[in-house]
Predict the structure of SCN4B protein.
Amino acid sequence: PGLHVFAIAFALEVSVGKTNTVMALNNSNVLLPCTFTTCIGFQDLVFTWYFNSTEMIYHGKIKSKASEPYLVGRNPRVEFVGSTTGKDNNISIVLKNVEFSDAGKYTCHVRNPKEKNAQHNATIFLTVVQKMVEADNTVTLIIVGVVGGLIGLLILFMLIKRVVLFIIKKTQDGKKECLVSSSGNDNTENGLAGSKAEEKAPPKA
């Protein structure tokens, strides 16, 4: 029984995606993503978005999987853009006309009465900037080019070295063959000393 209660307590999960940070331009709209999963379904589920843990900016309820969330309360600049009748239980919101004062921590909190009021939350951090700065990749490209060039030269050098060593080896093998061939010649016709042309002296009578 204890293990069963443990499993139910952790059946509810809330996620804000792969990254927990988002950047937005001043005076633009920004999406704050959030989804939840539950193994045993939900009934009269409650979800709330908080700014910096204390300020409630959106509060909604969902009766069941067959119905979409309905609004309980919200900040005028916040709009619900999710859906819970499809595959994903999406409870994302859009914050409109972002200001610098909106930068901070946003928490998506979910409570499911069907799971003995199990609760879970996830946090996303918003940064507001005056303008988006494009990353200058020139230095990176130069470094990559130089490193690639050095690697290419190294490979070329190794190939040339192998070819040269191969040629030298073949040349040396050729010389050895010549020496062996020369030392094995029959020099009878040349009458050289120490050769087969050297005739034994006739036996003395």
Summary: The mean pLDDT is 83.
